User: Which sequence fits this backbone?
């Protein structure tokens, strides 16, 4: 560690002579097409401001990247900044004192006023201090549809989940897969989460996920959710892919009619040069309940014990929230900006729908904020089992309630 | 024998002891220390970072009531038995074939051995592809006219472990074959001559004379193969990610997922403690057999 | 292509010469070997063929068919252009690092393990068998389990995140199997040699360098092959215990293969896979014979 700090300070001194530019290593798992383009925008802005973004991309989303981040931080050789889904994931690292307190940056830039919805900043705040800079809002509850599949079959493009299910037989008869679903565990979990809000409605959702009311969770409203999930399971038969973007690709190439996936799927449509509204359709809240949960990504800044570096970290933190960066980053990534005061005239059809939901305040906290990673993993395990076997809806519901009770 | 006072005993062989320091350090600090650490923290409710909050056997109770863990153990047992038996028998049979004074032995050997040079990640990827029903073997056979042919082990929960096995054997048998072949070459020619003179059939000679003589070879193979089976992780990740559903989950994946994705260190460590325990159950009797008898020799 | 040539090469010289009793048995023998070889070669065949096809041809279907138009672009892309995150310089970025990690790790791990094996056989001390048993136990420990303790150890030693930290980790985890091999090998060297040298007054290191080392070339070859393969293919340690400017090639391979930019570029993936595996593959193809001789000489007696 000493050697490393020495090396770091050497580079700091060397770069200090050249206009105080500091190399800052940033670790993240954004490597798919749209994601990489979006990270490029961040790096561009940071480089333009005089510092240097050293890219530490690790493919394989949270599962591969997170052990690396945790090991490096606890090993005493941290990166300059690292992506996390904010909420409960990084909580312990903050409590253990590994993370830089950036409250002064937040105050100087008036984050409390500009960051919208405020829940995002709350998720970064622990005991009144701010530890992370949110960069985007991601909502998982979207249904993506291929217009061409429906046009070819002479059907109207569904406007909500119920119509989608109703049209599924025709789609199947037309030789297409109704619902694309990748094999990775979190994708089944995500689809279930989306069905929760769409089918159960917002009040029942809150009762379970926020107030942890287990009577509602085991009640008839959620029984309907599990029935819907069992239906969706039948619709997903035949989509033999692993990754989420391979599943999205089935929709892009019109092999599948639809996919339940977060708004990040839009980046893939964009890379494939499809146009929202004409080539594909997106339905927030699966078209039933236009509520979105606001998880998202945030950057944390591990403590580096070096004033030069620390200053650069704070410069980066401030930069991430500035309107220009917010616009260019989120346009590329297909996510929503974390401030309401930016001009998104370049936004496409889908982002507009998202912005409307956002403006109407139809938001609920994201899964990372209400449940521990442990509970989420167990739910994901259960969902994988459920989606890939013939487990009955009632059994799945009982198992689900048992997991939530132990949270 | 050991009644001499401590100092001279410590000093005797001092160079050897100094030279063995790295080994002593590794065994005591890394392996014993690391294992102790693992066991101790498996009794806590550590989440993301290790912390001292003793919860007794809670983690173990939860572990053994978890469906995914039970499936993982079952899968590994299935994979382990088949892999061990097949690797050793196939490795031995291939070695016997290669030992028939054949032509092009070098070529054959290289062909069988090269997969060992490739990582499990690569192995998994390639086989995932060959076994993919849409463009792999199934597709080819169907396009040859056999329309109903079905071979999709990676997408069928009942046989997915065998899909992994095909790839695992591909990667590992060549190496085992080489060790076995080396063992066969180490057998004295006279043994063969003697058995020929006595009119003992070849297969009997192999079974009752050669194999017992190759005991150390089998032990080396056993250690290498078993340790590979227990650590099975990369191959599964690359080939199936544990799917379809939980049909190809293995313990190492459970450990890793709970340690880092679920951020429930205690649970992950409880699972790894169970894995280490099962290794010990096999290893301790072996060590007794191996060293217990020869102590005085 | 490769399997057909082996086939003709096989049946060519085999037929005419030893006509007598070899025929039926040999037909069975060679055809068994041939079938086995198809199983072994198939994946390599698929990899090479796919890496030489363009994407349109891959979408057409048959993964076993040779390419109609040979394309080298996937190889170029995998080596120099594929993007992982922001860096679009393919695998080339990690090659140097892999070499930098490989060389000291191979040397150190083999040096340590050979001394271990030597001490365990020729200079037994009280408890040496216990250490050996623990070492064997160590070979069964899943790497993932040891991440946390090792992070703590390296942090306390102050070498976390450095090249030497990683070298040390490779040495530690290479130790069990290597020590087993060296121990077995040295036990096959006649004890008389050792005793004679002791009578001449040679000490621990004297015997090691002047008698044991010159006699153990074959087992060193085996150890080198095993370590080159293992360390070159390592992903987990390389990525957890170093930082981006030291990341080995496998990290780029993971990023290329796992980060899907829209459509999976199978040809680039396969080319990247082959390029990454090239070093150990060459080592195997070149030294295959020595490998078996080495194992024959050592791994076997115990």
Assistant:
């Amino acid at each position: 560690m000493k050697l490393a700090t020495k090396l770091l300070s050497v580079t700091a001194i060397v770069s200090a002579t050249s206009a105080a530019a500091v190399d800052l290593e940033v670790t993240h798992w954004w490597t798919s097409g749209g994601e990489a383009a979006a990270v490029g925008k961040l790096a561009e802005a940071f480089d333009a401001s005089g510092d240097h973004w050293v890219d530490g991309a690790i493919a394989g989303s949270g599962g591969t990247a997170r052990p690396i981040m945790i090991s490096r931080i606890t090993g005493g050789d941290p990166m300059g900044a690292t992506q996390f889904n904010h909420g409960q994931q990084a909580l312990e690292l903050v409590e253990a004192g590994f993370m830089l307190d950036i409250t002064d940056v937040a105050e100087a830039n008036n984050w409390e006023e500009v960051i919208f919805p405020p829940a995002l900043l709350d998720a970064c705040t622990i005991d009144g201090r701010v530890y992370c800079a949110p960069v985007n809002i991601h909502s998982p509850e979207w249904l993506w549809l291929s217009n061409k599949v429906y046009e070819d079959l002479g059907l109207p493009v569904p406007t909500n989940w119920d119509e989608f299910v109703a049209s599924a037989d025709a789609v199947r008869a037309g030789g297409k897969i109704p619902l694309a679903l990748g094999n990775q565990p979190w994708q089944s979990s995500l689809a279930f989460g989306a069905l929760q809000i769409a089918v159960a409605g917002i009040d029942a959702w809150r009762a379970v996920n926020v107030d942890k009311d287990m009577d509602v969770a085991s009640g008839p409203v959620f029984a309907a959710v599990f029935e819907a999930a069992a239906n969706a399971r039948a619709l997903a038969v035949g989509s033999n892919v692993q990754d989420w973007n391979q599943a999205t690709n089935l929709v892009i190439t019109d092999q599948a009619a639809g996919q339940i996936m977060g708004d990040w799927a839009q980046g893939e449509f964009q890379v494939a040069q499809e146009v929202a509204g004409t080539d594909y359709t997106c339905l927030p809240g699966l078209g039933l309940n236009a509520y979105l949960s606001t998880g998202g990504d945030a950057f944390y800044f591990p403590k580096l014990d070096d004033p030069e570096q620390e200053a650069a970290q704070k410069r980066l933190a401030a930069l991430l929230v500035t309107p220009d960066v917010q616009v260019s980053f989120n346009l590329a990534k297909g996510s929503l900006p974390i401030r309401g005061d930016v001009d998104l005239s370049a936004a496409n059809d889908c982002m507009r729908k998202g912005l409307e939901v956002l403006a109407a305040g139809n938001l609920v906290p994201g899964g990372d904020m209400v449940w521990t990673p442990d509970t989420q993993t167990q739910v994901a395990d259960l969902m994988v089992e459920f989606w890939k076997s013939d487990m009955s809806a009632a059994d799945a519901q009982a198992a689900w309630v048992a997991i939530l009770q132990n949270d | 024998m050991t009644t001499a006072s401590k100092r001279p005993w410590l000093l005797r062989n001092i160079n050897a002891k100094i030279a063995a320091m790295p080994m002593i350090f590794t065994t005591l600090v890394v392996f014993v220390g690391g294992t102790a650490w693992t066991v101790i923290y498996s009794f806590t409710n550590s989440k993301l970072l290790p912390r001292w909050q003793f919860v007794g056997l809670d983690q173990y109770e939860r572990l053994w009531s978890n469906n995914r863990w039970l499936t993982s153990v079952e899968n590994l047992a299935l994979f382990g038995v088949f892999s061990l038996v097949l690797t050793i028998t196939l490795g031995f049979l291939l070695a016997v074939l290669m030992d028939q004074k054949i032509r092009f032995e070098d070529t054959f050997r290289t062909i069988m051995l090269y997969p060992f040079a490739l990582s499990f990640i690569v192995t998994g990827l390639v086989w995932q592809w060959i076994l993919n029903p849409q463009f792999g073997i199934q597709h080819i056979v169907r396009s040859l006219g056999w329309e109903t042919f079905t071979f999709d082990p990676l997408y069928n929960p009942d046989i997915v472990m065998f899909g992994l096995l095909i790839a695992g054997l591909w990667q590992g048998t060549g190496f085992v074959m080489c060790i076995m072949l080396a063992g066969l070459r180490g057998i004295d020619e006279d043994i063969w001559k003697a058995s020929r003179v006595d009119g003992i059939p070849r297969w009997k000679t192999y079974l009752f004379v050669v194999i017992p003589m190759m005991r150390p070879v089998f032990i080396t193979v056993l250690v290498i193969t078993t340790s590979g089976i227990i650590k099975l992780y990369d191959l599964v990740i690359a080939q199936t990610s544990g799917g379809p559903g939980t049909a190809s989950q293995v313990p190492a994946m459970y450990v890793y997922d709970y340690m880092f994705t679920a951020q429930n260190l205690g649970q992950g460590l409880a699972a790894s403690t169970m894995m280490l325990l099962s290794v010990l159950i096999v290893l301790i009797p072996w060590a007794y057999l191996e060293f217990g008898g020869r102590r005085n020799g | 292509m490769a399997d057909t040539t082996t086939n003709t090469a096989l049946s060519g010289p085999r037929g005419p010469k030893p006509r007598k009793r070899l025929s039926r048995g040999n037909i069975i023998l060679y055809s068994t070997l041939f079938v086995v070889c198809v199983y072994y070669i198939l994946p390599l065949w698929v990899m090479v063929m796919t890496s030489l096809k363009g994407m349109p041809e891959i979408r057409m279907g048959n993964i076993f068919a040779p390419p109609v138009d040979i394309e080298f672009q996937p190889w170029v892309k995998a080596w120099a252009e594929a993007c992982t995150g922001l860096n679009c310089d393919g695998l080339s970025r990690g090659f140097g690092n892999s070499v930098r990690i490989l060389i000291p790790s191979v040397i150190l791990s083999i040096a340590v393990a050979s001394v271990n094996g030597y001490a365990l056989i020729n200079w037994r001390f009280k408890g040496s068998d216990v250490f050996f048993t623990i070492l064997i136990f160590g070979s069964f420990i899943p790497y993932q389990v040891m991440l946390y303790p090792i992070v703590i150890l390296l942090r306390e030693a102050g070498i976390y995140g450095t090249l030497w930290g990683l070298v040390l980790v490779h040495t530690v985890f290479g130790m069990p199997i290597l020590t087993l091999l060296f121990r077995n090998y040295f036990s096959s060297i006649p004890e008389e040699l050792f005793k004679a040298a002791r009578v001449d007054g040679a000490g621990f290191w004297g015997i090691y360098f002047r008698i044991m080392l010159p006699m153990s070339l074959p087992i060193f070859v085996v150890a080198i092959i095993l370590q080159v393969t293992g360390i070159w293919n390592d992903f987990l340690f390389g990525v957890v215990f170093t930082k981006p400017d030291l990341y080995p090639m496998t990290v780029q391979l993971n990023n290329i293969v796992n980060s899907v930019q829209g459509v999976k570029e199978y040809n680039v993936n396969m080319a990247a896979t082959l390029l990454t595996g090239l070093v150990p593959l060459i080592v195997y193809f070149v030294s295959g014979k020595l490998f078996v001789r080495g194992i024959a000489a050592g791994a076997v007696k115990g």
User: Anything to note?
Assistant: Residues 1-19 of chain A have pLDDT under 50 and may be disordered. Chain A touches chain B at residues 62-63, 66-67, 70, 74, 89, 91-93, 96, 183-185, 240, 242, 372-374, 376-378, 381, 384-385, 387-389 (CB under 8 Å). Chain A has two domains: 22-138+295-339, 142-293+371-405. Residues 18 and 343 of chain A are 35 Å apart (CA to CA).
